[in-house]
Amino acid sequence: MITLMVLAISGAAFSSTVHELEGPARFCGYSPIIDLLPGEKVTTLEGGIHAGSFRWEGAFGSLNVAGIGWASRPPGRIVVAQSGARPARFAQRRVDDRYVVAVWNGANGAAYFSSPSPLTPQQISAIGRVTLFEEGQVPLGCDLRTAFSWD
To answer: What is the DSSP string of 97-138?
Structure first.
């Protein structure tokens, strides 16, 4: 069995399938890294060996996020090229009943941000603050993070 572990600022770990984490702090999901602003929060949803999902809420609204630490290139057209730590951002697409924007680090880290309505300029701007890490990497400066363990 795989357990989603949420590691809080204190370093204490606790098992969770759903838990809220609030900013300001650096949240390292699997694989998005988000510097949460005051009033922003993430709610962990599901986790697995190579991926995890959470809801990210703030002044921009709410986004469901699926992060993958061992991903391939997302489908679609790149609208913002990768530069340094900033991942490439893909054009918004409609997938089933949701609107999706993907980011990709050019290797194995990717994240998909989705909403039932087209993403707003504020949501796209928030996505622009996201960086990525991938399987085998240990991101630095994480105050809040998710990790996975075998039980």
So the answer is: TEEEEEEE-SSS-EEEEEESSPPPHHHHHHHTT-EE--TT--
